[in-house]
Design brief:
- By secondary structure, the protein is mainly alpha-helical.
- It has helices at 3-14, 20-32, 34-54, 60-81.
- The chain has one domain.
- The two termini are 21 Å apart.
Length: 82
């Protein structure tokens, strides 16, 4: 599995929607690729933050807006680094 394949499955894994086979393949890749592991950690932290906000009864539209802003900013940072 290459980086693009792993990153394409990243959100499915974080959301626990990926198959067991895909999850295992990505986990194997993450053990060998520091860059993808860092992306996984950051995206997982964002997901954890959003889930914590959900637990506090924040309106879903506001959470989606927050998630979108965070994701867009992280994408911009990633593009600046590449």
């Amino acid at each position: 599995m290459n980086c693009q394949e792993a990153l394409d499955l990243l959100y499915e894994i974080i959301d626990k929607e990926a198959t067991e086979v895909d999850t295992q393949r990505v986990q194997t890749h993450l053990k060998r690729c520091q860059h993808c592991l860092e992306v996984y950690k950051i995206e997982g932290a964002v997901q954890d933050f959003i889930m914590a906000k959900l637990a506090k009864d924040t309106p879903p539209a506001r959470l989606e807006s927050l998630k979108s802003r965070i994701t867009n900013r992280l994408d911009a940072i990633d593009q600046e680094l590449n």
